Predict the structure.
Amino acid sequence: MIISIHDIGRNGRGTHYEWLRANAGGEIYSPDLEYGRYSPLATFERLRSRLRMYEKTTPEGEPVRIVGFGYGGFYAHLLHAGRYNIQTVLVDPLLIPFAPIRLSASPDDMEALAKLMTDGFFDYEYGFRENLHVICTRGRDGGSFEEQIRCVLPPSFKHFYRVMDAGDLNGAAGKILKKLLKTAPVKIKPIDFLSFAIPEEDLNI
């Protein structure tokens, strides 16, 4: 079971959805989110509600996975912060999305985005890094695009894949994504966090 979250200017039945159908198999939930029509909070609650439903209804042994593209990666990252056992792949994610949506978002929407980001940071658990993966276009926007991703993730984060074009799933990005979607998620229990030491490099943020 895959929850696919599309980018701004895309829809739930675009090329990324078709790629997932052809290469991942199984059921795919890929809604048209109409970002400009609904508030960020409403969009997040819609996705979180679906995630909870699929966690309950998906047969045991068939993991739920999340894939987020661009702005959809923002929501995928937030969903994963509270569900660190779910394997999540972010493809060129906009983890600090204010600039791309500023022309279409209302002041209330911008405030809601800020609240979602803050809540996501408070939900952060160091164990989540085991099942979170990021595929990023190397050197995009002179390196600034990658920098906005690095600003959100801790320095110790290792599952970072830099490719020539993360949006082209017929190239290196697709090979990485296909492999990740066939890899079993790491099972983490709450008690495991007692044994996780915060990496030294993360203490100097």
In short: The chain is about 40% helix and 15% strand. The first strand starts at residue 2 and ends at 5. The first helix runs from residue 15 to 23. The radius of gyration is 16 Å.
